[in-house]
Amino acid sequence: MKPASFFRLSVLAAVAAIGAVLMLISCTSPFDQFSSSMDVGEDTNLSRAVVNLAITSVSPGANSTEVSIGQPVVITFNTPINAGSVPSGFVTLNDASSGAAVAGRLVVDSSGTKIYYYPIFQTQASGTGSSATIRISGLKQDGTYRITLKGTITATNGTSLTVNQSSTYSCANLDFGIWWFNDKGEAQKYIPGIPNQFYDPSKPVVLYVHGWQKSSVTNNYWREVPYLWNDKYTSNVNTGTFWKQKGYNLGVFYWDQFADEDEVKDAEAKIWVGNNGLKQMRYKLSNGTYVSYSTAKSAGDLLYDAYKAALASNTSGYIRLVGHSLGNQMVTVLAYKTAVDAKNGSLATALVPKLVYLADPFWSKDGKTYLSGKWTGEVCRTYINYAISQFGVIVEQSKSTAIGGYLVGDENLDMRKMTAFFRIWPDFISLTDAALQHSYAVLWYFWSMGGTVQTQNGALGAAAADSTVKSMMNYGKTSYYYWYNEGSGNNTGTPLDDSFVRASGISTW
Questions:
Q1: Which part of the chain has CATH 2.60.40.1220?
Q2: Of 23, 34, 220, 405, which sits 20 to 30 A from 64 (CA to CA)?
């Protein structure tokens, strides 16, 4: 052998020998790794080091602004945690000004890497008789809140983390959109990407849209909740339980800050066009001032956008819309938009509502420049006709007051010739409480899911079969029939003892 070759072999042998020694003294030798992986039943590559538990983000972030009042606190970890190790008071939320605690619910997601703290928006009955009201707790627009994280948490890999930190954030002064309710009066806003505790995409939906909301915003952002009722005539009635028992998701679209105008016509104009030439799309704050909202979209457009996003994954194939007073125009616009887009193939037909209920509806008189001189009621009839003719949408309409044609309203008699129309006479409510009579059309319908309302031609109300309600519609008929409740049932709040009779003609007073 040549000397050079011998030298190269000697060097290689020496390197190999040194490598063998290093392998024997190394704590991470291939042999040790293989043996360890076999012991715990994992893969053979355990070169990964144990990750020490740490927080990677907290949302809303420190000093964030324009945060939605519906945004939960979200703590994200770099490795899964043991849900059972999370202290009940690990997350607290307080009003930064008053220090008052904001109640919430703590949930660890299925991956174990996120903790959600959902602020509780709670609707509760308060008082009785003439002092009866509904109170709503939760975060408020334009408020500043402090997040505090405190306690020790253990990860599934055995590491632990002790936290004691706090930060503040500020909420936006405008809130609108869809909120989902449970049957206890709690609500959570739909926010893309955030799990919602009170919405199941496999179940049917009832979505309520309120009307004119004069002075509600200046009452500390008070909001209407149709599923709970407490007034001087009706004490603490929870109609949401009836709907939940039937498997429904309970939704409300809030546009109250836009709808709080001194003149109803100014709120009405926002339904149809953003740049309406009246008050545009300004919105109200609790101090009574208005803020300009720069958008070409109308309130009807905002409703449609929220609807498509929130219900995009709904597979139930059954959606009801309920619109009260001015809100009837909102759900009419929504039904029309869904029908048009489903017809042209840009929206799933499952998102076209199966039933629309117009509760003591309101349309103003006279032609509107923003509708090319047409009356709002006239355009609504065109929209309802399209939804019925193209998709067989079932449309019900009720009256519980004389709010229609005597003052500023349009009775829109021709709409009754298309819908299943019934007149509710809440004789137990004083004529001096016209606002409560007006609202009763909502309570009546949601309560009617709890049983059967009798007529000469079968059941009426929310629990009635679709086929029955459809047979009561006047659409496509030459003889028109309407239903009127009469008898002792008019003297009680519950609709379940009402009795309706059928009559022809137009007058309902």
A1: 55-171
A2: 220
pTM: 0.89
Dist. CA 453–CA 164, nearest whole Å: 58
pLDDT digits 0-9 by tens, 96-109:
999 999 999 999 99
**What count of other Cβ atoms lies within 10 Å of the Cβ of residue 243?**
22
> Whose structure tokens read 């086929």?
467
Q: In terms of Cα–Cα distance, which of 506, 400, 398, 413 is closest to 461? A: 398
Mean pLDDT of the chain: 90
Higher pLDDT, 415 or 28: 415
With both helix axes pointing from N to C terminus, report the angle between 327-343 and 264-272 in degrees, rounded to the nearest 10. 10
CA distances 134 to 141, 211, 238, 366, Å, are 19, 18, 12, 36
47-75: average pLDDT: 94
Q: Which residues of 291-318 are buried (b: 16+ CB within 10 A; e: fewer)?
A: eebeeebbbbbbbbebbbebbeebebeb
Q: How much is the pLDDT for 43?
A: 44
Cβ pair 414, 425 in contact under 8 A = no
DSSP string, 370-392: GGTT--HHHHHHHHHHHHHHHH-
Three-state DSSP class for residue 286 = coil
Q: State whether the Cα torsion 304-211-451-131 is positive or negative.
A: positive
Where does CATH 3.40.50 sit in the chain? Answer: 177-504
Q: Which residues are CB-neighbours of 370 under 8 A, at least 6 positions away?
A: 269, 272, 273, 276, 277
**For residues 190 and 173, what is the distance between their CA atoms, to the nearest angstrom?**
18
As a CATH number, domain 55-171 is 2.60.40.1220
